[in-house]
Write a structure and sequence with these properties.
2 domains, three-stranded mixed β-sheet, elongated, homodimer
Chain lengths: ~290, ~290
């Protein structure tokens, strides 16, 4: 096991913000020799080739992985089972597979089922980085600099596979944090999936009104920042909501309870209660930012 | 009526982000000769003096306004009635009064009642600018550059008073937009008051958990932006919720309906419905940003 292994051939399946930035970062760090990008549409792959994110484009995942050293699954999590089943018969016996999915329990279960004998070389991972933009055009080499990448290795996961994935992410400038898959999903339901659902709902509440155009015209930085993440990929978020359904519904309950508490205080004109609620939130947010 | 009147003495009651930035902007534009700041606590006024936001500090609003040319009421809207009643007997007959309150129907009603004979020289206004910070230390001269300032003049409001307030805001770099007070309150309930309430509730939903510290430690830019405005002044937002109660409850209803629609789709595993909802939000947000 070398401390700083160079990856011969990286195959990125799904060359979007996450997959594209991973390839760019490893290229910038000279940690990879050759990158094949796999996608569903030629248009995005052509953009990725032009941006030199990938050296070769393919729409056939099975064929692309036959000589891969590392495979990154960077599609929306709903496509994981199909892609895993498709590549499993063609993966070479040394290839390490990892993913960038926003949920981990479901991805681990899919991998266990569909990667078969390759499962010990699958390292479940989730880079905590992103923007509201998607597609290859949104990718950039420094996306992961200073960011956390959560890995949720399983009892079967080999040390070599973990080491290769750890080092790759470190070469992208990221820090590795290990969590249990269940804990990962509970945490990100709260700090990521809930805020996205809230932002989408907030935009829709305004956008459905007949005066929506006027409303947005009068909005300022507050609304703009609050709903920035409502620009995120609908397909990706559809899959996350399905994959992390139970954890997400639990935190949605908590949020709706909070909203009811505020509503009651507004309805009854309880200024002291409102000020207390807002002060509680401000203090928590400010403390959090200070530590950040 | 001069096109570009210079204000002799400006009195800012409430030297925070809004009032302090107004004074700084007018000073920078050389549109004011002398600024007196009025506040409840010496500490904030001392900071304002040090930052040269104001030339003189006072804790006595009545005494400060006796030779004022323009008075800006920049306290939380809940304090308006008391301050208006306090200054009315002492305002000189030429003085123009304006405010920076986030709600307008209530402020107009207070002014009509408490400013008495001075009401025709009161120009209700709301600068659409701000940050999540508050207090004199947060003030800066360019806060209003390129921003909208809504004015909601009444039938009685004199042309001279409107002109003086218009020009003052224009010298701060702002654009003036005229609206009816009712329309203003309905619009800002949707694009400002609702997002603030949502951001406060979202932080509280996470902050109340026993694992809150860990949660925040794993959060990324998405949550940070979504709850930025939860750092805003609790006292100010308490007053806005009280002042714009009915409009706010109406948009809170719309938002809770949207949230229920998303929740149902998550519960029933309706991926197509979820993707449609998220796509609707993304399209609306992106269109809005494009126009912005």
């Amino acid at each position: 096991m070398r401390a700083n292994p160079k990856i011969g051939k990286l195959v990125v399946i799904g060359v979007g913000l996450i997959g594209g930035s991973f390839a760019l970062a490893l290229k910038k760090a000279k940690a990879v020799k050759y990158v094949t990008g796999v996608g569903r549409t030629r248009k995005n792959l052509t953009a990725a080739l032009k941006m030199r994110i990938i050296d070769e484009a393919s729409t056939d995942a099975a064929q692309a992985v036959v000589d891969a050293d590392l495979v990154l699954l960077a599609m929306p999590v709903g496509q994981m089972p199909e892609v895993m089943a498709r590549i499993a018969p063609h993966l070479p016996p040394h290839a390490v597979v990892t993913d960038g999915g926003s949920t981990k329990q479901d991805v681990v279960a899919y991998a266990r089922r569909f990667l078969g004998a390759h499962f010990p070389r699958f390292v479940p991972a989730h880079p905590i980085a992103g923007t509201e933009h998607s597609g290859a055009a949104a990718a950039f080499a420094d996306l992961y600099r200073g960011k956390n990448v959560i890995i949720t290795p399983q009892p079967e996961t080999t040390a070599r596979a973990q080491q290769l994935v750890r080092v790759a992410w470190q070469r992208c400038g990221a820090r590795i944090v290990r969590l249990a898959a269940q804990e990962h999903d509970a945490i990100f339901a709260a700090v990521s999936h809930l805020p996205h659902v809230v932002a989408f709902a907030l935009v829709n509440a305004l956008a459905r009104r007949t005066d929506a155009k006027k409303l947005f015209g009068f909005s300022a930085g507050g609304l703009r920042d609050t709903v920035r993440i409502a620009g995120s990929s609908p397909e990706m978020w559809r899959d996350i909501c399905a994959a992390n359904r139970n954890e997400l519904l639990a935190v949605l309950d908590d949020f709706e309870d909070e909203l009811e508490t505020v509503r009651s205080a507004i309805e009854s004109g309880d200024g002291a209660a409102l000020e207390h609620l807002f002060e509680h939130a401000r203090t928590a947010r400010n403390k959090w930012l200070k530590r950040d």
